[in-house]
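User: Look at the shape:
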Amino acid sequence: MASVTSLTDLVSKQLTSALSATRPETSADPLLRRSDRADFQANGILALAKKAKANPRDLATEVVSHITTGDVIKDVEVSGPGFLNITIADRAVLENLAARYADGTGRLGVPLAENPGITVIDYAQPNVAKEMHVGHLRSAVIGDALRGMLDFTGEKTIGRHHIGDWGTQFGMLIQYLMEHPGELAPPSEVDGDQAMSNLNRIYKASRAVFDADEAFKERARKRVVALQSGDKETLELWQQFVDESKVYFNSVFDKLDMEIRDDEIVGESAYNEGMPETARLLEEMGVAERSEGALVVFFDDIRGKDDKPVPLIVQKADGGFGYAASDLTAIRNRVFDLHADTLLYVVDVRQSLHFKMVFETARRAGWLNDDVTAHHIGFGTVLGADGKPFKTREGETVRLKDLLDEAVQRAAEVVREKAKDLTEEEIQERAAQVGIGAVKYADLSTSPTRDYKFDLDQMVSLNGDTSVYLQYAYARIRSILRKAGDVRPAAHPELELHEAERALGLHLDAFGDTVFEAAAEYAPHKLTAYLYQLASLYTTFYDKCPVLKAESPEQVENRLFLCDLTARTLTKGMSLLGIRTPERL
């Protein structure tokens, strides 16, 4: 792969060299940023002037004298108290973009990270025998996007779907199935809807018997003990629930256009055998202690309303284990067996205190340290139009499948209205891509920790910061390239660029830097912001710079080149977020 040094880095190197030549005894970061007055503005001079006890403007003028203009930097001027406004040469812009365009790997010249690591991402965590609802949406969408961005940087990612497949409710379900054999069909004989219908029916029926029949309730409790003890018949029936649920899970994830690998579905049950050892290790190391019969970990800074310490319960007084033991055992597995150096947990922000205690416990045990870190990527709530948690009109939690189906249906209306040469089959295909893309983008364009309103009308709008706007920009470019016929895109560095061409070109060059920044900060919304601005800059370019009717054949080729590179960047960026870009809309 031929990696390309970004214009930002090229300018930064020249400025660093000039700063060193001006004041070799000290140094300062150029702190480049985009500016309305120039392509870049450098404001590191102020820090350098403070160190050197010099006048900032005088020092800035001296730094400029050490900058060579020409190949990359066209012009530098001192402004304000000592800022440097820097203009990039048109030739440098086009040559850098041409190098990106020539990269045949599809990476647009973006290099891989020098020292990539291994990141385990815990996301998309549905519960066995329970229907997925709107609350499961954000974990899946955010986790998948983080994985796409990290993979692109060269990080090795391992998915972990910590599904709820263990606990007391399974005693009730298994006992009911034992007394009503044949209620669950083999997974190969049902689709997702049938699987969920069966599971819902059995759950409601078993719950009704459990609440009304004390003898059944006692048998169900004993069945929990049999499950935890590894009883063969009990485990076989438990596996039926897991398999049936996976059929349903996969049907929903398919709608989300998201691949969930079976070997990465590692539920709570996978850590069952390791939890006693986790408890033993923590107690032996003195990290956990016995309190009122339970094994707990205390924290000086975590107290309840009565100012009493709030402990993390590793093992209950009756010997049972809860979420803390499961999560701590999972950390041991991910660090020592999977050799991860970063653990990400894409889980509701309301679990922040739990993860704070779990991570601190793991640090005290030495399982986490400066080289092996864990991060809770907490996300906010999906709200309805009324600003309250999203519910149906009846006040029930919205089923995720229904929500996705409605998004596709609404997108079909938009696509059909705009479609000129699409068949009904093509409209439905694109409606799925547009509708699901709209749901994902609305989620990802919001900072994960913030709540956001689920407004389908806005999500599928052709105007504003929506995935549909980006998808139509991509489709428009593909249409232009088809109309160009035999005229091929080609960069012409000798041409002078229009202001709109320069703005678009400079933004295209920043793609790699943006992805690396978004990945490092676990912030997909920074990539969506970049892509929206890219589509907006392209719209301005398209309005101000005729493409096929440009003044010369060279200008036509050059503008087609800018169009094609914009399309490639849009589709690459959207794909990292798990969103498709249809060729025609």
About this structure: DSSP finds 20 helices and 13 strands in the chain. The longest strand covers residues 73-79.
